[in-house]
């Protein structure tokens, strides 16, 4: 089934029917991670604080996970229907976001605009994200049964790479569309992504040799499938997945400010793009590597050990606090950021294949969907946890031309201009690492003691 050499041309080609539509879907919905590029501009345009608008992204990730959890059965039954739902919801949510940004521009401070953005970017797009994320995964594992990790890694890498691909395009659009460019960008991209996702929807198909049970009575209930192994096994998978996302989001949400603390303000955007590349590379590399392993859980052990080692090194050396003007410590901190990004991506791409190894393929979309609820809760806790720590620990410092000043007035007195003075909190960012270190240790314990080795890959 995996080679499809005699299956009848493009209609049964695993690349055209599996890989390409998966990339079209995931490269579209993955642009949700571009939010940080324009969140401040949206806030300024509609007359709200950046903190108020940030909740739109948190809601999007929350509803991504929850829609995947509750709509997993629809994906299981009909990926063609679920991919159409994803296409419509994602494009409609993006267009609606543009509409309410435009409304907010003419009605500054209107709660209608903010609530509309929450509804469109958070809820409607979130449903599109959840169904769009799930839809191609099972089909890929069926088309590439001999290299399931490579296949799912390829698609999920598209989700991670979307930010790196779309960021320069969005930045160019914001600069080139003039007044109201922010809402115009959303409306234009809604049309572009609708075309991409609709093409993916038309192409996506399961192999002809795979027949789903026609009657729900023929398929075991999810809890019955999970109970084929000790329930603690699934709990371990869910918790370590949740922790990996929470820690990843906590560090990723602060990475631009960390780069500035290290003296890389001028190239912070470039370094963030490199982070996105590591994120995508981790999704593809770790999942493809896992194909050669007897137990895919080994990948999670490696991810957590690497994260713990580099977090400890940065904590012991005070890498973030002392990295300004100290290139070895600055480089060490960059390595930590990139290791966490790669592990964050690898954690995503290995979940469906790990679950299929433990629980089989018959209900994998539904089980994967329930597991993505961990993403929903991590989307609310990761960013917000890091923001709370940075706000309550350490003291804000003011960075101008790679020199730290205790007050903004001191930075201005040294010749600083408002646009080139950055408020940072090195101690706060360093404190975030103490929390993520503890969480990574818990996740490693889950991986070692709760997630039992599978007998054989199914």
Q: So what's the CATH class of the largest domain?
A: Mainly Alpha
Query: How many angstroms separate the termini?
Result: 15 Å
Residue fraction in strands:
under 5%
| CATH fold assignment of the largest domain | Growth Hormone, Chain: A
Strand order, biggest sheet?
2-1-3
Largest sheet: 3 strands, antiparallel
**Number of distinct beta strands:** 3
Helix content: over 70%
Query: How large, in whole angstroms, is the Cα Rg?
Result: 22 Å
* Overall 3D shape: globular
Put simply, the count of helices is 18
> Overall pLDDT, averaged?
89
CATH homology group of the largest domain:
MFS general substrate transporter like domains
Q: Indicate how many domains the architecture comprises.
A: 2
Topology as a string of helices (H) and strands (E): HHHHHHHHHHHHHHHHEEHEH
Written overview of the protein:
With 458 residues, the protein is mainly alpha-helical. The protein has 2 domains: 11-203, MFS general substrate transporter like domains (Growth Hormone, Chain: A); 218-458, Growth Hormone, Chain: A (Up-down Bundle), CATH 1.20.1250.20. Helix content is 75%, strand content 2%. It is built from 18 helices and 3 strands. It has helices at 14-29, 35-46, 50-77, 79-106, 111-143, 148-176, 181-203, 222-226, 231-252, 255-261, 268-290, 297-317, 319-322, 327-359, 364-371, 373-392, 408-413, 426-450, and strands spanning 397-400, 403-405, 422-424. The longest helix is centred in the N-terminal third of the chain and has 33 residues, at 111-143.
